[in-house]
Amino acid sequence: MALDSYIRPPQLNTDRKFPDNMLSAHALLSRAKNGEKGSKKEKRYAVPAFNVTTIASINAAFTAYEMLGSSGLLAFSNSALKFLGRGDAVFGLEVVHDYVAKLAKRSSVKIATHLDHGDYIHDSGRKVVQEAVRTLTSVMADCSTDEKAKRPTPLEANVGLTREVVNMAHPQGVSVEGELGVLAGEEDEDTKSDFSTYTNPVELERFLRETGVLMLAPTIGTMHGPNKGKPGQKVKLNVQLAHELLKLADSIDPRICFVAHGASTLYSQVTEYAIRTLEKGNFSNGSLQKWKDFVGTDWDQIEGLIEAGFCKINTDTENRQTFLAKLLGTVAQEAAKIDIRYYDTATTEALTQSYIQKLIMAGNYGVWHDPKIDIKKFKFDLSKSLADAVGGAS
Ligand code: G3H
Ligand code: 13P
Ligand code: ZN
User: What tens digit of pLDDT does each residue of 56-82 get?
Assistant: First the structure.
C-alpha cells in the first residue's frame, strides 16, 4: 500500500465560493439524497447529468431547469470540450466556464459543471482534468479501465490516481466522482469497452476509504450508448449488488452519493416519431433498422435505485435521440428553409422537452422555486412546439 494512502484524504472544502448560483455537483446531490427542496424535506430525487455538447444544448438545459426550478448538472465529456474549444479541450473548458457562469448569474436556479469521464491515466487527459479542477465545480476521475490494455486498471493504480485528483480538487471545493468496475458500451468517441465487470464490495471499501471521493460510479449492469440489450428484452441490472454497495458506502460515510452511468431511457415517443419519419422518407441506408434496434435502460429499475440512494443519473443518448428525431422530422416537413435558426430552434426546443421529461421522472422540480409550468400538463411530444408541450406557457 502506498505511504500516502495512510494519510486521510482531504475533505471537500464546502466554504469555497463559486461564481453566482454555482455549486459543486456534490452539494446538489446531497440535497437530492436528503430530499431537500427549498426549506422543505421531501422524497428523495435524483439529479440527471445531461451531457451537453453545444451552446444550444446548454441553453436548452437552462430553459428546462428554470421552467421547473430544478437543480442543474451540466456534464462535459472530453470530446464535447474539444468540440466546443475548436479542437482544444482545455480551451473548451474556458469557453464553458465563461458561458455557463454568465448564464448562471442571471438564472433562477443553481448549477454545477462537471467533467465527465475525466481521463487521468494518459498525459493528454491529465491536463484536461487539471484544468477542469480550475474551471469547473466537479470532476470525474475515471481511472477504472485501462482502455489500451483492454482490462480493468489494477485497484492500486485506480486508488492512487483517483486519490491524486481528490488531493487537487477537494481543497478547492471541487467534488470528485470515482469509478470502480468496468462499464460496457461507448463512453467517449475515443473510448469503447466491449467488456465489463461488476464492482467488487471488498475493493469498494478500500477505494472509498483511501480516495475520499464523495461520488462513486459503481458498475451494476448499466451500459452506455443506444444498444443496451436486445429489442423486446428488459435490461437487467444487478439491483441486489447495488443495494449491498450502497449499504457499505453509507456505513463508511453517509455523504457518499452514488451515480448511475448509462441511465438513458428509450422514449417511445421519440423512436416512434423517428420511425414514422424514416418510413415516409427516402432513407435507404439501414437507419430505420438501427432505430428499431435501439434499447434503453429500464426506468423502473433506475427509479428503484433512486429510492435506494443513487442521486446522479447520467443521460446522454436519449437526448441525442430526441435531437436527431426532431431534426429528421423538421427536415422532412420543410427542407428549403434558408435559415439556420429555423432548424436550431426546432432541435433546441425538442432537447428542452427531453430534459424536462427526465427531470420530472427523476422528481427534480421545485428544488429552488416552484415550477413555472403545470407539471401535470406537460406532454413530451415531438410533433408539438415547446410551448404546446408544456401546456401553453413559453
Ligand atoms: O458517457 C459519455 C458520453 O456519452 C459522452 O459521449 O464523448 O461522444 O460526448 P461523447
Ligand atoms: P447513456 O449512454 O445511457 O446516455 O449514458 C451516458 C453516460 O453515462 C455519460 O457519462
Ligand atoms: Zn458515463
Answer: 999 999 999 999 999 999 999 999 999
Give residues (CB < 6 A) around ligand 1. Answer: 51, 53, 77, 79-80, 116-117, 187-189, 224, 316
Identify the architecture of domain 25-374 in CATH. Alpha-Beta Barrel (3.20)
The whole-number average pLDDT for the span 241-264 is: 97
Active site annotation includes 116: yes
Q: How far is ligand 1, taken at its centre, from the CA of residue 209, in Å?
A: 29
Stretch 344-370: mean pLDDT, rounded?
98
Per-residue H/E/C for 242-300: HHHHHHHHHHHCCCCEEEECCCCCCCHHHHHHHHHHHHHCCCCCCHHHHHHHCECCCHH
- pLDDT average, residue stretch 311-326: 98
Q: Which atom of ligand 1 is nearest to the CA of 53?
A: 9
In this prediction, residue 281 carries a pLDDT of 86
Q: Which pTM was predicted? A: 0.95
Q: CA-CA distance, 271 to 27, in Å (whole number)?
A: 35
Ligand nearest to the CA of 222: 2
Name the H helices within 8-122.
Answer: 25-33, 55-68, 78-84, 89-105
Give the bridge partners for 177, in sequence order: 140, 215
Nearest CA to ligand 2 atom 9: 314
